[in-house]
Design brief:
- The protein contains 18 helices and twelve strands.
- It is an alpha/beta fold.
- The protein folds into two domains: about 150 residues, Orthogonal Bundle (N-utilizing Substance Protein B Homolog, Chain A); about 260 residues, Vaccinia Virus protein VP39 (Rossmann fold, 3-Layer(aba) Sandwich), CATH 3.40.50.150.
- The strands form two sheets. Strands 5, 6, 7, 8, 9, 10, 11 and 12 form an eight-stranded mixed β-sheet that branches. Strands 2-3-1-4 form a four-stranded antiparallel β-sheet, with helices on one face.
- Helix 5 runs antiparallel to helix 6.
- The structure holds S-adenosylmethionine.
- S-adenosylmethionine binds next to helix 14 and strand 6.
């Protein structure tokens, strides 16, 4: 929610704080939760969504305040480079040592002052109240107060200076994208991550009709892009299970698999089930495998709402054995750098070492997927990563070692005529800045790689 734009849920007022007594100032618990989430995600390298979900209950927030806390934390990660640079440039000796929660409180307040439609005085006062509450940070109340007031005064200059799109991208990722895609494309990727992502849905049937009913944009690939964000559970068709939320690029791998009614298909890393739902909705007899019990519970609940069925198996897909299938989908665990626009914390929690470990796991899962594909069957491998090690290079190595598999190149018509999303080998490579729309929030999609192989 950009500064200056109307955002009712974000307007929160707070009283004066001369004595540092927090009492029950409106909006304070939301700020505390935001700072706690930022702190824990950065320190423990955890996912923002999981951390928010785990910590939120102990803050006793209503839905609006919980959404505010999430908006603050997600904005902080989306613009973390800009925020850290603005703070560091105004703290002569950097953040004080042994200052407890000083840093996350400053980052959360800076996100509000620079980027969110929150009154500056509320952001500043509530941050100061938090500093008072911890013995380690209470020594730095004057410093924090001066810093935040300066950020508010100098906001326009700070934003005008933050033009370099790589400012909000960790160095290893910027280098990786420059090497893989060239400087201009890498800059466009980084730039696109600064905007909030679009909200797309997949429908069981009748995309034209649902696009009209929901006043959405019917994308050339068949997904529908909603014009408004906000609560989805109250929209027509949600309770009836007519559609589910799924990024438009994430919906493409199943299109490449082209399931036919009655075919036996295994979805090897299935939870929370977006692609399982697509396969089942197209009439396939689906087996959904995942090693995570909690994530499979979400898959089960999603399928129940959609009135779709699949056999659900909790197992390590690298070890799991079964009769070979007509088709196999492997949506492998990955660094998820293609989803940074939706999950900006990913950029700051993943490392090249994480990526390399995942590359090894993906190779093991691919071996299992190959064994489970019957002769003449299709194997679609995909990842929501922008890193070629997890996509193009992974498949190059696989094909070198498996003479019994050949690539079946993607045809433009299979992905809505979007030739820009097909690479020179005939694999699908979507980038976050593609699928442009004049309105930034309706523009782009996730970065995905997908290849379709046939077993001879
Ligand atoms: C990219 S997500 C899958 C998203 C899912 N296909 C969808 O469209 O909703 C990757 C999944 O792989 C699962 N996973 C990771 N390692 C696994 C393994 N060895 N065996 C089975 N599942 C695994 C994770 O639990 C996670 O749910």
């Amino acid at each position: 929610m950009a500064k200056g734009r109307k955002a009712d849920a974000l307007h929160t007022e707070a009283g004066p704080t001369e004595d540092g007594n927090s009492g029950t100032a409106p909006g304070l618990p939301a700020r505390k939760l935001a700072a706690a989430v930022i702190d824990e995600v950065l320190r423990a390298k955890l996912s923002l969504d999981d951390t928010h979900e785990r910590l939120a209950p102990s803050y006793g927030l209503d839905a609006a305040d919980s959404a505010l806390a999430r908006a603050i934390a997600i904005t902080a990660f989306r613009r973390l480079g800009t925020i850290q640079e603005a703070i560091n440039a105004r703290l002569e000796r950097g953040s004080p040592r042994n200052s407890g929660p000083f840093e996350p409180i400053m980052v959360a307040a800076a996100a509000q002052i620079l980027f969110l439609d929150v009154p500056d005085h509320a952001a500043v006062d509530l941050a100061i109240r938090q500093l008072h509450e911890d013995a380690r940070s209470s020594r730095y109340v004057s410093l924090g107060n001066a810093l935040l007031r300066r950020l508010a005064r100098e906001r326009e200059a700070i934003l005008a200076e933050a033009v370099d799109p790589f400012l909000d991208t960790p160095e290893w990722l910027a280098e990786s994208w420059m090497e893989s895609y060239g400087e201009n494309v890498a800059a466009a990727i980084a730039e696109s991550h600064r905007d909030e992502p679009p909200l797309d849905i997949s429908v069981k049937s009748d995309p034209e009709g649902w696009a009209e009913k929901l006043d959405g944009l019917l994308l050339p690939t068949g997904s529908i892009r909603l014009r408004e964000r906000g609560g989805i559970t109250g929209l027509p068709g949600f309770d009836d299970g007519a559609w589910w939320v799924q990024d438009a690029a994430a919906a493409l791998p199943v299109r490449l698999l082209a399931p036919k009614p009655g075919e036996r298909i295994v979805d090897l890393c299935a939870a929370p089930g977006g692609k399982t739902a697509q396969l089942a909705a197209m009439g396939a007899q689906v087996t959904a495998v995942d090693r995570s019990g909690p994530r499979l519970r979400r898959l089960r609940a999603n399928l129940e709402r959609l009135a779709l069925t699949a056999e659900i198996v909790t197992a390590d897909a690298a070890q799991w054995q079964a009769e070979p299938f007509d088709a196999v989908l492997l949506d492998a665990p990955c660094s998820a750098t293609g989803t940074i626009r939706r999950h900006p914390d990913v950029a700051w929690t993943k490392s090249p070492e994480d990526r390399d470990k995942l590359v090894a796991l993906q190779a093991r899962l691919l071996e299992a997927a190959a064994r489970l594909t019957k002769p003449g069957g299709r194997l679609v491998y995909c990842t929501c990563s922008l890193e070629p090690q997890e996509g193009e290079a992974q498949i190059e190595a696989f094909l070198k070692a498996h003479a019994d598999f050949v690539r079946k190149p993607v045809e433009p018509a299979e992905i809505g005529g979007l030739t820009e999303a097909i690479d020179r080998n005939g694999d699908m490579r979507t980038l976050p800045q593609q699928l442009r729309n004049e309105t930034p929030r309706l523009s782009g999609w996730s970065g995905f790689y997908a290849t379709r192989l046939i077993r001879l």
